[in-house]
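Render this sequence as a predicted structure.
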Amino acid sequence: MMESSLAIDVQNLHKSFDGKKVVDDVSIQVPRGQIYGFLGPNGSGKTTTIRLICGLLTPDQGSGTCLGLDIRHNAERIRQRVGYMTQKFSYWEDLSIRENLAFVANMYDLDHIDERIHQSLENLGLVERQHQLAGTLSGGWKQRLALAACILHNPDLLLLDEPTAGVDPQSRREFWDEIHRLASQGLTVLVSTHYMDEAERCHAIIYIADGKIMTKGTVSEVIAQAALVTWIVRGPGLIQLQSELLKLSAVDHVAPFGDSLHVSGARENELARALHPWMNDERFQWTRVEATLEDAFIHYMLKAQAGRGG
């Protein structure tokens, strides 16, 4: 039988805890060798969905496959072929980097352990620190250790749950360089993130809120689907102007960016009429620009809040 071109292919997943629906009719398809970003506010269902995909949780409803294996009936086999990096650092702080990797290798009952460890240390720049205790590492180095441990058994799929939260920009960039190197070798990656620059480095993104997928596609497709019109305004008294503009029903959101405001709305003509008095005010300079992913992100978040009456 020909192997599917999809690493993840799940349909209509549902999951509730204590009567609260956390994942609501979620369907996701991720092609092999691609990097997909998973975006959404805290509590939106990202982590639960990731755990359903890799067999750590069983869906209340829905079906699908991960790496061609049924998520309901082959959970153990799926976990053997997946690397899962959790939000919280979950390795042993009283062991060195090398000792942690050796422990993980033995848990997986891997062969050629010394070779695997050496290769992981080399790939992630950990050779010089291999004898340092994990508990003494900074956030960026702990992140490298966690990634090294996740790929030690040569998984086919990497699931990353907000892997760079609290990590400095240089470490984040180096981490993403490594992710793209791994993907170029055929590894599939699903990564949840709050950082727009990271989302823009993905081949495609999925936006989830309140357990429902609101949009998915390439970054340009997701921005286009939001159908936002965005203006930049500069001038004096921008904080006061922001409070005035937020009163307008045609304005979806207003966000300060340095010495300017980004003003966005989904109804072009209504927005133009609403902004007309301020556009004729000589104190302000207005420029229409392309909407950004952050504009779209805020738009979908506000849309979800309106949907639940928030």
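Summary. The first helix runs from residue 46 to 53. The chain has a mean pLDDT of 91.
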